[in-house]
Amino acid sequence: MTTRFSFTLAATDGLARTGRIDMMRGSIQTPAFMPVGTAATVKAMKPESVRATGADIILGNTYHLMLRPGAERVARLGGLHTFMNWDRPILTDSGGYQVMSLSDLRKLTEEGVEFRSHIDGSKHMLTPERSMEIQRLLGSDIVMAFDECPRADQPRDEIAKSMELSMRWAKRSRDGFDAGGEHVVRSALFGIQQGALDEELRKRSADALTDIGFDGYAVGGLAVGEGQEAMFATLDFAPEQLPTDRPRYLMGVGKPDDLVGAVERGIDMFDCVLPTRSGRNGQAFTWNGPINLKNARFAEETGPLDDRCTCPTCATYSCAYLHHLQKSGEILGAMLVTEHNLSFYQQLMQAMRTAITAGAFANFAAQFRHDYLKGG
Amino acid sequence: MTTRFSFTLAATDGLARTGRIDMMRGSIQTPAFMPVGTAATVKAMKPESVRATGADIILGNTYHLMLRPGAERVARLGGLHTFMNWDRPILTDSGGYQVMSLSDLRKLTEEGVEFRSHIDGSKHMLTPERSMEIQRLLGSDIVMAFDECPRADQPRDEIAKSMELSMRWAKRSRDGFDAGGEHVVRSALFGIQQGALDEELRKRSADALTDIGFDGYAVGGLAVGEGQEAMFATLDFAPEQLPTDRPRYLMGVGKPDDLVGAVERGIDMFDCVLPTRSGRNGQAFTWNGPINLKNARFAEETGPLDDRCTCPTCATYSCAYLHHLQKSGEILGAMLVTEHNLSFYQQLMQAMRTAITAGAFANFAAQFRHDYLKGG
Question: Residue B195 has what pLDDT?
């Protein structure tokens, strides 16, 4: 494939959209869910198993990778794709969110953020320019602009000031990215809308980003504790403020019912640690809602996690066995439930794509909520 | 296959032997290494991956399984093979060794051992009869007699008394096993020689076991801290005291150089947690000796763990990536290095079988030691 980046809408149904992103390393069916590979690994999964779940793209975390093993080291080792054995697209975040949530002793200035590593206390500086450089060193396919993600409960003028800083950083990200030489001709850059729950701030942010011009647009600053109702209320206006002909990516979301509600509101891409983190903790997602495998009721349950699921775990293992592995703290328990959860998420995305294509998304969403939220 | 149990020697070279055990669930090439699947899982491995390393048989631990999930529960769930998705032979130990090494508040009598679970403090009794019943409930293919494993540094009369108790328990194990109905016609029973490092006690134990009659014979009571020199000195006489036409199983051994030295002395079967446990800790076995992946010298090493290894990890991943995963505490690190280690052990067993068949075992062993012990 020789397309740097193109987005083709195949069908819409209400505000819901389905389509395809084409990039040099492969195509991405949308709506898409991106498994999170924080430290150059989707936790407890081999990359070929991640691909077998149906994932077209994974996410890597700039903050983690810059600290360990280090962006320059990854570059010397041939880039992130070679390093971790994933040859399809990788989206990298900018580090902006995690530097604020994970690091110690942050100092925020117009220039960027100075911080200390949560691993070894070493001092680092992240700026829009350095974030672009790191993502280029990693060999990212979809690069995210460097932004600041404020808490949603701050005063409006704080939210506005933060959003405006992020928009100046978006422009510096665009310039830094464009100065990246060879990398520019094979990767894409996404801007990130901020403005918390405020429609007017979101609009100003969307306009600023559109003026700069990006390959895709993320809705940032949600899924930070505001709750599903407030998130959906914001998604009632935020995606429509962004260009129709570009993919819209809701960062860090979410639960299966979050995904359905967000697709309903025009979102095309998602990432979230929930299916992987839950898999390690014994929580499995099913069409009838989430279940906790450590619950004693599964001790002699010979059926699979989900009768309708097509994943290898459900084809092979009983709930009783998975219960035993979780109770015993066995690594295989994390492996099998993570594989199920990631597969379930991809099956959900495929079901949404099919429903949108068929013009039946409203029915699909109603049936999904009936089964998922009421436990079948 | 309809053979309950048969052992066919194909070739000998000095005291080293190669052959095949045939059982209903499959054949076992000897010398054989059995990966340990303590809690109904070979840690950090899917069973199909265990099989792909070349393993013909795995080991399950009676002590762990009786406590969690419980033998009766495993039986209700269809037996250990169904429960954990391994359809080839499983050897189960008797619980005798681990009840002494892991449990709390043991009380040893002629009848058996009373103990408290290390998991929840619950009270249990293991006797030869109960051990046979548990192994039957699990659906074991090769059942081990219930024995007591004393420390090698005890006074000779204590070792003798313990060995004699184990021989009385061996007879009760034989009787308990034979009373097992249907299970008897599709599984095998091995006796366990005791007597620590003492040639005369080992001989008395071997004679007592041979009088009772078993399908195979284990050399027990070694690899308990006596060191390789003392172990080899004991293996200079112990295996030859056991019947030539039955498999000889050295329990709980060992390092790659232990395996080569033991095969040289007439051993046919092994089990050990070393390749799996080491895999989780970042120690990898190679033809040039063990390496610690956490060592900084691997941080930018683009080569595989071992140039000669044929495992998926070596085919795909650099030492630098495995170093990163181990430093980051990632589950995938445990998965990939465990897979390599188990595969390396099976490649070593295959190399020994090939060398014995070719009548070239002495040369093989010399070359192995040159490469392995001197680091190539």
Answer: 97
